[in-house]
């Protein structure tokens, strides 16, 4: 039996990278009948609205996007009778365990996180630019700017991986299906498990295993060297699950490829073509190499047509279902309420044990 946990930020309607790198895997786990009979796995999927607070958000907008994400997950096939689908903030123990884990987390471990380091770098860059624009004399110290960069960033962004570890450990998850960008955070969670067990001389937590799909890193449709992301300011760079058929076709048609003739899968030399093949393969349940072989004599334009067809036929039913669900807010609210009660039960039982183990009241 697998105990599965995964989370997604409340960014409204998810993009194709979320779907292929993660959500599709969540849905597939529901179908895994390998042990026969009922679903052998216990599945917990959370819309992580506490994580969303690390970037200042309008409260009304945050609520709306949390709700939309929950509806989108159901539209993608998350069945609330097979999976526990819940808002992270509805289960107080996430924050409680976050604090307990933060108190045993060395700062150095968090300093090493690449997502944090890239935020820090961006901040340094901005500070250098604004300092340079202000300073005309030679007394400007680049060094000084560098050492102060972290001061402008929010603590929550720094401790983000601790909350993520708390999410996983609170359910004693054995498996965590995510895209590649979350792997380092989960390695951190594994390190914390060992650290906690050693510190408290208890084998309380199990080591969570990361589950990746072959489409663990879907790239931008504008720049195939960057990952597809909701935060990309260019909307043409991503497909969102509620894009119209026309929008999907147009975005794929304009995606940069190369002038090599024939279709081959070679992410290093042909990142644009290879990204399209990865998308196609994930949707047609094949692998990119076989897809390339089957389409080897096609032109890039023909490949794009095939990819657009695959994306449209997979996403249009999801889009329609999402539209239907968003029209019945009470239904979604009721599902979340029921599922949150289930999540709370599991989480608070585990939190009681943890609290006892570390000597505080639960
Ligand atoms: P988030 O919300 O950024 O992304 C949700 C999931 O989508 C995957 N993903 C991608 N996969 C492939 N290609 C892409 N271009 C792409 N973009 C996003 C992400 O890897 C992720 O699996 N910190 C997490 C949420 C979280 C979580 C957790 C995950 C909070 N607590 C506990 C697992 C376990 C995040 O921000 O994901």
What does this structure look like?
By secondary structure, this protein is mostly helical. The chain folds into 3 domains: 3-105 and 159-217 and 329-358, HUPs (Rossmann fold), CATH 3.40.50; 109-152; 242-325, Tyrosyl-Transfer RNA Synthetase (Orthogonal Bundle). It contains 15 helices and 5 strands. The chain has helices spanning 16-31, 49-52, 59-76, 93-102, 107-111, 114-134, 142-148, 155-158, 160-170, 183-199, 245-253, 271-283, 288-294, 300-326, 329-358; strands at residues 3-8, 42-47, 83-87, 175-177, 209-211. It has a 3-stranded parallel β-sheet. Helix 12 packs across helix 13 (288-294). The relative contact order is 0.14. It binds tryptophanyl-5'AMP. It is an enzyme of class 6 (ligase). Belongs to the class-I aminoacyl-tRNA synthetase family. It comes from Coemansia umbellata.
